[in-house]
Design a protein that fits this description.
This protein has eleven helices and nine strands. It is an alpha/beta fold. Strand 1, helix 2 and strand 2 form a beta-alpha-beta unit. The structure holds xanthosine-5'-monophosphate. Homodimer.
């Protein structure tokens, strides 16, 4: 039968056999899959693993700090944080089209990652292996657009940006035989914090596709503050785990409000929360009116630039989960 400790032992043995004494590089996204993949590989080959976290500037509040605290401070795994916020932000300037945003972020991610990998090779010698958090369902359905398939492009798009040398990695995919619930179980056994293990999925392009219209630093700051409140209140109400995803969307729509003696004219924030099995279909979550009231009050009072909160009551289909 399936037990997480036998899966861990078998996977660790397979990784050792595949990698030997060579180096592995792993891009941490902040999500469950890359984290569990990294922990398994680290258990197998220790400091032959180097993790890289690319800060795109489109991450949620505290995300970078959590990766550093957990991986570097707690697990003592070699971790390089690349602050690429300005690069991403300047490429995203004035870009409105969602698919264009995705393309830019995907390409820039690969460039930044490859540059970092080259630097690390100069420092430490060859890094022949790239870790990927590919799950069993991705192996069968290789068209899914989650973070695993984003990472997979690193191998195939190695000429993006006319980089001098092409990087072709051999893949290490320790989660290839596992389903999501098994990955979570393995994560828990390996000591990944519960909060991380149960984290909702977060799209690779991040907050950039949750700001409708052009992305800039001010809007990112606004959305980050609002999203933090949404997630905090949902956690405090004890319903986070029942939801498939819950987040804030910053709309470009401005509306009139009143605060004290003043008339305000500021943005509308949308709250999205869904229940779902497979993310192909989803139902809008029946969050309690009191929870919605707490979210709304806090956002309007605490987040400058937002004076109205609306709740998205559309299911998928016909709507998608994300707004872009
Ligand atoms: P939609 O909006 O299509 O989302 O209902 C379904 C699931 O996919 C995620 N999603 C993405 N994930 N890169 C990703 O890594 C993307 O560009 C992307 N777009 C949507 C979304 O968050 C949801 O979980």
């Amino acid at each position: 039968g399936w037990t997480s400790s036998s899966v861990i032992d078998e996977t660790v043995a397979l990784i050792r056999e595949q990698v030997g004494s060579e180096r592995v590089i792993c891009a941490l996204s902040g999500g469950v899959d890359s984290a569990v993949a990294a922990l398994l590989i680290h258990r197998a080959i220790g400091d032959q693993l180097i993790c890289v976290f690319v800060d795109t500037g489109c991450m949620r509040a505290g995300e970078r700090e959590q990766v550093v605290d957990t991986f570097a401070s707690h697990f003592h795994i070699p971790l390089v944080v690349v602050d690429a916020r300005q690069r991403f932000l300047s490429r995203l300037a004035n870009v409105v089209d969602p698919e264009q945003k995705r393309k830019i972020i995907g390409e820039e991610f690969i460039r930044v990652f490859e540059q970092e990998a080259s630097k690390l090779e100069e420092e430490h010698g060859p890094i022949p292996f790239l870790a990927q958090g590919t799950l069993y369902p991705d192996v069968i359905e290789s068209t899914s657009h989650d973070t695993a398939s984003t990472a997979r492009r690193i191998k195939t798009h190695h000429n993006v940006g006319g980089l001098p040398e092409e990087m072709v990695f051999k893949l290490v995919e320790p989660l290839r035989t596992l389903f999501k619930d098994e990955v979570r179980e393995v994560g828990l056994v390996l000591g990944l914090p519960e909060e991380w293990v149960w984290r909702h999925p977060f799209p690779g392009p991040g907050l950039a596709i949750r700001i409708i219209g052009a992305v800039d630093e001010g809007k990112l700051e606004t959305l980050r503050a609002a999203d933090k409140i949404v997630v905090e209140e949902i956690r405090n109400a004890g319903v986070y785990r029942e939801l498939g995803q819950a987040f804030a969307v910053l709309t470009p729509l401005q509306s009139v409000g009143v605060m004290g003696d003043f008339r305000t004219y500021a943005n509308v924030l949308a709250v999205r929360a869904v229940t779902t099995g497979d993310f192909m279909t989803a139902d809008w979550a029946r969050l309690s009116p009191n929870l919605l009231a707490r979210i709304s009050n806090r956002v309007v009072n605490e987040v400058p630039g937002v004076n109205r909160v609306v709740y998205d009551i559309t299911s998928k289909p016909p709507a998608t989960i994300e707004w872009e």
